[in-house]
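$ ./design --mode recover --in tokens.txt
reading tokens...
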């Protein structure tokens, strides 16, 4: 679940995990950027006929 504070624009959004831990927004963005990079590498490898090469 993501919470976006609309009452104070200086506050960053927070992400809550399924077990109610708060994940800092910067950490979540870093993680999602790395996921996106890995997905792109896998997509390129798959298009080149090399499934698994991007692991």
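writing sequence...
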């Amino acid at each position: 679940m993501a919470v976006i504070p609309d009452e104070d624009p200086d506050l960053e959004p927070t992400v809550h995990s399924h077990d109610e831990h708060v994940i800092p927004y910067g950490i979540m963005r870093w993680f999602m950027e790395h996921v996106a990079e890995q997905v792109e590498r896998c997509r390129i490898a798959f298009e080149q006929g090399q499934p698994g090469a991007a692991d």
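exit 0
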